[in-house]
Specification:
This protein has 7 helices and 12 strands. By secondary structure, it is of the alpha+beta class.
Length: 227
């Protein structure tokens, strides 16, 4: 593990830094350890002692739980700027409630419990930001649960794809390209891979999207908005 350099990736603006001036951000950034994580390597596992707060610096990761029968349930896709492992900011850290695993070679910033608590005491905005981030994640999971109870499979898949387009999509002349697999899309929309494939194929025939391996190109967002 190393200390990060002062340079940061383009468009890197973690919410945990929100509201801090440049000097404060530099101090918080300098207090972090930079970890290089290989693809498919765990960052932490469900139930582990929460020793560090993390920010995704480069690459991607997935946040998931494993059921008693060994099935993996995808909860969130972590992209640059996302903060996770926030339970480590508490005086008595709350164990990690899910697992985080890199899905590509990645860099993460890590603050140990003592460091992040010292920074949060000096910069109360950090603690406020942490609460905002937790509430944001809670809102995502509440909306997902309500959607499961009240929306159709195609509505949930469309909303999931469009939300990913807003978060991680790359603008192309033909639309917005999203790096995501059918399995990830289906898991986040709480539908089967078969249903995901069927719906994407139908949307592709209608010209709303184009599919390729691990990617979906959204041509017509309005065509996905099913009433």
């Amino acid at each position: 593990m190393t200390r990060p350099t002062t340079s940061q990736p383009a468009k890197f603006s973690p919410k945990i830094f929100a509201g801090l001036n440049e000097d404060a951000v530099a101090e918080v950034f300098a207090a972090a350890q930079l970890r290089n994580v290989s693809a498919r390597r765990l960052i932490f596992a469900t139930g582990d002692e929460a020793t560090h707060v993390f920010v995704q610096r480069t690459g991607r990761a997935r946040y998931f739980r494993v059921t008693r029968t060994g099935e993996e349930v995808l909860l969130h896709l972590l992209t640059p700027g996302d903060t996770f492992g926030i339970g480590a900011i508490l005086e008595h850290p709350f164990p990690y409630i899910a697992s985080a695993e890199a899905t590509s070679d990645a860099e993460v910033l890590a603050w140990d419990n003592a460091s992040i608590r010292k920074l949060a005491a000096f910069y109360p905005k950090i603690a406020e930001n942490a609460l905002q981030i937790v509430l944001h994640y809670l809102k995502i999971y509440v909306n997902r649960h309500v959607g499961l109870m009240t929306k159709t499979a195609d509505q949930r898949l469309a909303e999931t794809l469009l939300n990913l387009g807003d978060r991680i999509g790359q603008t192309h002349p033909e639309g917005v390209e999203v790096d995501v697999t059918n399995g990830q899309l289906g898991a986040l929309a709480d539908i089967s891979s078969f249903t995901t494939s069927r719906l994407l194929n139908a949307w592709q025939r209608d010209g709303a999207v184009s599919k390729s391996r691990g990617k979906v190109l959204i041509h017509s967002p309005e065509a996905l908005l099913v009433e």
